[in-house]
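Service request form, structural biology core

Requester: graduate student, group of Dr. S.
Request type: structure prediction, single chain
Budget code: on file
Notes: please return the result as C-alpha cells.

Sequence provided:
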Amino acid sequence: MNLILQGLHTDRAAVEAIIQLAQPAHVVDINAHAWRCEGVTYSDALKAQIDAASLAQQVDYAFIEAGRSLADFKLVAMDMDSTLITIECIDEIADMQGLKPQVSEITEAAMRGEIEFNESLTRRVALLKGLDAGALQRVYDERLQLSLGAEKMLNAIQAAGLKTLLVSGGFTFFTDRMKTRLNLDYTHSNQLEIIDGKLTGKVVGGIVNAEEKRLTVERVCAELGVPTSQAIVMGDGANDLKMMGVSGLSVAFRAKPVVRAQASVALNFVGLDGILNIVA
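Core staff response, request fulfilled:
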C-alpha cells in the first residue's frame, strides 16, 4: 500500500514521526506539503497508530493501493452543503426567518444519522413557510462560498476528462447555479415549492435522501456505461453513506465521525484538492 500524508502548511519535519511509524520502502515528495510513502505494510493496528498521530499533527492521511490514479475513474459525485460549499443552505435560509438555531439543530442531528433524513427535511422546510423567495438569492449572493480547494479539484478532474455530479439533499435553486458556475455535468436535488413569491413550507416531488443519492450515482454511471467502482464520491453526512458505499473511492470531507469511520479516505484539514494527491 501507499500512504499519502498531507497538510495545509505542514513541513516534512512535522510528518517524520508518522513516516517512521509506517516504515515505507520509499518516500516521494508530491509537493511541499504532501508525501507518498510507498511499500507500506497495512494493518488495522498501523492505521490506528497513523490516525492518532496524524490527528495530533493536523495532517490528513490516506492508505491507497499503489498505482491508483485519476485515470481509474470516470465520475466524481459530490454532496453540496458542507462539502462542495461551506454552508448548509437551509440553515442560512432559516436565518432569514430568525429560525437558524432550530433548523441547524435538526440538520446536525440528521447529518449524524440520529434523525431519518426525510423527516428532518420535511420538518426544516415546514419552518420556512411564508418566507419571501428572495431570501434564496440573498443566501447565494451573501453567504455561499466554495469549500477550500474546490475549484482546483474540479479544474483538474475536468481536465482529466472525468464527469461531475452534484447530488444534494439541498435545493435546486443552488444546485442549478452551481452547475452553471462550475460547468458541472449533472445535478440532482430537492425543489422548494414557491407560490406567489413565498415558500410554502413544502418540497415538490420526491425527496433526495440517502437512497435517492445512491440511485442517482448508479443512474449516472449506467448512463456513462461504467461501473460505480469507477466513481469517486465525496460527502460529509450520514445521508451520503449509501452513495459512498457503492463508489470505488469514498471521500469524507470535514465529515461527521460516522462518515469518517466508513469512508475510504478522510480530508479533515486540507481542501477538496487533497484528493489529487491521493490519486495523482
